[in-house]
Amino acid sequence: MSPFAARHAQPAGPGPVRQWAEPVAIGLAAVGIIAGVMYLIGTAGVFGPLLVLVVAGVLGWRYGFLRGTVGAGAPIALLVVAELVRQQFSGDKASGVIQTVLIGASVILFMAGIAFLASALRGRYRQPPGGRPPRGRDDDAAAGGPWRA
């Protein structure tokens, strides 16, 4: 028997750029599709903003709090910048710069809360990839269990 531990080859995971670019790209695509459909339909209904909140929850579940929040917040930040540019070029000062930035910041913070909630639920209730085998009824009372009788 060898004194050295057997080393099993681990598959290389995604690099740090891909870890951050993937949720941002998915967030941009999802919010872009939602905004495009709302623009083509010509409606200002409530289902579009609700779907954006669902996107934040899905990104938070899949990528965790920080990357999910960045992925969900980046499209909103771009929309705020686009709105500010539109206001400057069109001369429409109905909502000022400060009001537009505050609305965008509040939406991003709300989406961050949804992404945090989804990632916390994932951390609490999602089973690991191998999954734990179902426990018997008296496993806690066994000698190795955390609650001994």
Q: Top keywords for this entry?
A:
149 residues; mainly alpha
Molecular structure report:
By secondary structure, the chain is mainly α. Helix content is 66%, strand content 0%. It has 4 helices and no strands. Helix 2 runs antiparallel to helix 3 and helix 2 packs across helix 4 (97-125). It is elongated and about 80 Å long. The chain starts with 15 loop residues before the first helix and ends in a 24-residue tail after the last helix.
Quick take:
The chain is mainly alpha-helical and 149 residues long.
Largest sheet: none
- Report the count of strand segments: 0
Q: DSSP helix count?
A: 4
Uncertain residue ranges: none
Head-to-tail CA distance between termini:
41 Å
Given the C-alpha coordinates, what overall shape results? elongated
Strand percentage? under 5%
Helix coverage percent of residues? 55-70%
Mean of residue pLDDT? Answer: 83
Structural class of the helix and strand makeup?
Answer: mainly alpha
Sequence of secondary-structure elements: HHHH
> Measured on Cα atoms, how large is the radius of gyration?
23 Å
Secondary-structure blueprint:
Blueprint: H1 16-41, H2 47-63, H3 65-90, H4 97-125
Helix pairs in contact: 1-2, 1-3, 2-3, 2-4, 3-4
